[in-house]
Amino acid sequence: MSGRDWFSVRRWWSVVRKEFLQLRRDRITFAMIVGIPIMQLALFGFAINSDPRHLLTGVLIEDHSEFTRSFVAGMKASGYFDIVAELPDEEAARAALARGALQFVLTVPPDFSRRLLRGERPALLLEADATDPAATGNAIAAALHLPQSVAAKDFTGPLARLAGGQPPFEVRLHSLYNPEGITQYFIVPGIMGVILSMTLVLMTGLAITRERERGTMENLLAMPVSPLEVMSGKMVPYIFIGLIQVSIILLAAALMFHVPFEGSLLTFYCAALFFIAGNLTVGISLSSLAQNQLQAMQLTMFYFLPNILLSGFMFPFQGMPRWARWIGEVLPLTHFNRLVRGIMLKGNGWPDLWSDVWPIGLFIVLVMFVALRFYRRTLD
Amino acid sequence: MSAGAPPAIDVRGLNKSFGAKHVVTDLSLKVQPGEIFGFLGPNGSGKTTSIRMLCGLLTPDRGSGTCLGYDILRESAAIKRNVGYMTQRFSFWEDLSIRENLDFVARVYLMPQRDAAVRRALEGLRLADRAEQLAGELSGGWKQRLALAACMLHQPRLLLLDEPTAGVDPTARRDFWEELHRLCALGISVLVSTHYMDEAERCHKLAFIAHGRLLVQGSAAEVVHSQRLATWSIQGERLAELADRLQGEPGVDQTVVFGSSLHVTGHDAAALGQAVTGAARAAGLHAAPIDTGIEDVFIYLMNKSGTAEQPVAS
Fold this sequence. Notes:
The structure holds two protein chains of two kinds. Chain A contains 16 helices and five strands. Chain A is an alpha/beta fold. In chain B, the strands form three sheets. A six-stranded mixed sheet of chain B has the order 6-7-8-3-9-10, sandwiched between helices. In chain B, strands 2-1-4-5 form a four-stranded antiparallel sheet, with helices on one face. The interface of A and B includes residues 5, 8, 25, 214 and 221 of A.
């Protein structure tokens, strides 16, 4: 096969044109494009709750003392915090929170134990990534309660005077990104990924099986169009559909739910484009695997369920067992959820987002390879 | 076409099975440039499978050959660019208009002067004023004509037509065959499968396939001659009764009623003559030997191959 057989822009464009023309006459698909985002937003707009533990926590300790150690031990014992990092400075702490590498950072100020012994009731600073209030809420409650239990257990003997009455020190909470803990700030951006996954995978999933069922595939196969031209050509209209949906949801997020938008709109659309491409490759692959439209729908559902459950949309990611998180890490939706929240709520830029961009890119390449591999060039 | 030109189709020993079903067995065909080659056989005999193997839509299990000089196994991309394939079932896009369908085809084949080609095709179809109508709204006959126009749009050197005139009215069929002869005068080769016997007679060469095996091929005269059949015709009324009586008589292999005449065909010319003249005399009817027609031969072949299905006699 020569290169011209493999891909010709003009032939590819003929497929793109054809798909647009057909889409224009497909009323139901059009209704889906607008209807599904609005319906889903209305349905999921309320809170989804849960109680995750083992949240990733970093410590920034500038005063190593027995009290500090026993407070950290108390945090671990609560089950909510896994101390995974010791941070050198405030800057590193903020960066880790912005990337989503850590949910909490505990800062122990330099003169903590001295002031504690003097009875000055010093404060520990607990910074929380409150993007997902459901995920961090219980952990915060546990942390705020810790001073009392630590004091009751550890402050014995000569220190007993510190244990009575008010706790001898306090934990000052600093909720970052979503200080009021409004669940909708978390849920609404999450819905975007779910809606895009659902509609785009389903619609492209039907794209090739539809040709097969209507008998037009035989004609298409007899023509000199290559698999790559057919598949990528069929994706193009849906890229526009995806972008329309993104815009609808963004508008709804701003107007109906008053979700703030901290980051750059351009960055946001770039990330969305990446995610849309990921979904379309999945849809096209399912379509080339399935024998008919019914099978394509079943496969779509099969793909869709783990996306809903394991991507951190429905249940907080950190609350899932390790194997489930591994599956979740493979799914583009998991990464897109982080990207959307990162851009909308944290105002993250590309350096912060990169760790969630490349997995989607890798996913696209691998899945497209599968799609081309399974595309039937003949009627065998 | 010069005598040195390679055959349009030259395949040997093609085989294809789907699961346990052996659909095509040892198919060998040679179609010369500028020839109209008729492909006959009952439904399910492997005609469509054979045609699909020729244009690269199916990979043969065994066998080899060329189409327009290109290897059918390795050069299917080149074959697709130079062959027009018309599927048995209408396979253009019903949610595209007539013009959009033709335009898509022209674009896919990277045709220069695309608009002119589409306009010519529309005028040829006499559909210029209905160009914006959706293909799905056309009647069966018009769909066939659109499909034919679309598969000829890129000026292929070989047409593979799978029952192109099924369900088309006689006038349209006549127009269609005139068009085919005009094309083959330009050097285009055509392989056409059909059920219609009058169409078989319009082909330069014929092949008859049953149960995936090619039984005979050659010109109409060669095909008729090859079976060495004798045929008598009896004119008159109540021919069906007479036909029943003749069935099973020595020398009688087949009886077919064509309106007001009964064709009686058999291998053994002497025994057949005796049986027919005797029966005709008894019924008070006149019987005479005639030349065996292509139709008699095909009915004979079809019965011999064990399929109950009858061809459509026109």
